[in-house]
Design a protein that fits this description.
The protein is mainly alpha-helical and 129 residues long. The chain has helices at 16-45, 57-71, 75-79, 89-127. It has a domain at 53-127. 69% of the residues lie in helices and 0% in strands. Pfam families: UPF0220.
Length: 129
């Protein structure tokens, strides 16, 4: 995302370099909120388990916890530049961040499994192809 905002023509009037992380964080939050909005709307539209399996929300819950875990650690804590040591210091921050990334990656893999196992393959079996 480093080169995303550098292609804008209005670079003279606004200094994007200082606000790049803020803009990226806001964009990620908006996309995450939109995903939850869509999944809640689908759950309301199809309340029966036969139409939409509600256990599929588990991937979203795990991804939300991972999102919060990753964003709770600052770069200074990972590098060791932080003023406070915290519970385990730099090592604890790195372990916390690693667990957050593992949860996020695991929820991504599980959601792809649900997509293909629950919808793509199931649709091909029902249509006889």
């Amino acid at each position: 995302m480093s080169g995303f905002l550098e292609g804008l023509r209005c670079s003279e009037c606004v200094d994007w370099g200082e606000k790049r992380n803020t803009i990226a964080s806001v964009a990620a939050g908006v996309l995450f909120f939109t995903g939850w909005w869509i999944i809640i709307d689908a759950a309301v539209k199809y309340p029966k388990v036969e139409d939409f399996n509600h256990s599929y929300h588990a991937c979203g819950v795990i991804a939300t916890i991972a999102f919060l875990m990753i964003n709770a650690v600052s770069n200074g804590q990972v590098r060791g530049d932080s003023y406070s040591e915290g519970c385990l210091g730099q090592t604890g921050a790195r372990i916390w961040l690693f667990i957050g990334f593992m949860m996020a990656f695991g929820s991504l893999i599980a959601s792809m499994w649900i997509l293909f196992g629950g919808y793509v393959v199931k649709g091909k079996i029902q249509h006889g192809t």
